[in-house]
Amino acid sequence: MTPADQVLSLCARIAALTDIPGTITRTFLSPATRAVHSLLTAEMQSLGMTVRTDSAGNLRGIYPAQDDLSSRGNNLSSRSEAEGSAFAVPTLLLGSHIDTVPDSGPYDGVLGVAIPIVLIRMLAGKKLPCNIEIIAFSEEEGVRFKFPFIGSRALVGTLTRADLTRTDYLGISIAQALEDFGLNPLSPSAPLVTSRTFAYLEVHIEQGPVLESLALPLGVVTSIIGQSRLSLTFHGEANHAGTTPMSFRKDALAAAARFIAEVQSYPQDDPHLLATVGSITAFPNAANVIPGAVTVSLDVRHPSDAARLEAVEALKTLAQSHGLPVTITDRGGQSSVPMDPALSALLTTAAAPYAPHCMASGAGHDAMIVAPYIPTAMLFLRTPRGLSHHPQESVSAEDIQTALATCLRFLNTLHPTP
Ligand code: HGY
Ligand code: MN
Ligand code: MN
Asked: Between the CA of residue 60 and those of 122, 191, 196, 321, 415, what are the distances in Å?
């Protein structure tokens, strides 16, 4: 099998591990996630890597540095995470997330874990002057807790004690979910990464149409645009659908529907503004009951943080203009984040034979959480039809081969900071 086929095969085996048969759906610390951990642990151990799950449920494998350095680095797994940082050798972090949106495609996140594993195989035992640590982040999409980036926030120490009390639809908290998975209690503000981690590289499908429209296989990300996530609950009054005259109703779904139409039309004067209602829940959700309460999600993105925040405030005001009380909950916003210029330049040079396109990312990535703390770069692969968050999401073997060649050149030219 070619290395690119090995990547595709690994992605396919991971895709088969799902919470909902017939779809690709994996949420934070679900049984399917545990199965992916087993699969990836076996893969990484077969390459001589030391594998562990950290206290946020991120699966991590270390490929040690060349011999003169690795005798210290190998101790990392037997020490506590805090202790390990003092002794570790320089470490390059490679990875992405293994959770998915509901009914996902096979590559969003997963490709950024599969490519590094095959890269290690391609090294054929050759060691570098740094450890390579592969990380499969436990949560990035925000599906289970309506709160994204749990794995990467924990990595850099920005997951708060209050975040750990956030609950899923069954009332299970993040802290409880971690404990149920058999993990040690997580100290929210303590980073789960050694201070010697000098760079993070995330490989990801573009998830949009730009590279395909330019007929280019690769992109190098310059920045990741900011995003706001909220939920809004419209409070009406449930009542009988047959006996309540139209003028007497407090219909929460009708108010939410008017708001959704406003969200759709609001960005029309600003081509950079993206606003989406992607989820709606009606209570009690019965055909013959006027909806008493409706909760919708709101996702707002813009390259300019000021423009994004202004849009969020305007949309909140619109939500409150439909005659019903509205409860608004913050589900975690992120500012626009630049990638590290020096690391991105190195990546661009490594990709030079393929004329990579430098571009901003409209999608959020773990890289946007890691970048303020560790120099970070991202490599994008062309996404056929720009189709992602969709079961028919795809990527070509040729483009994977191109990405592997680029990453190998990147590894071979990277000089760890002392
Ligand atoms: O929502 C996003 O941008 C990403 O796919 N998590
Ligand atoms: Mn995604
Ligand atoms: Mn992703």
From this structure: 19, 14, 16, 48, 22
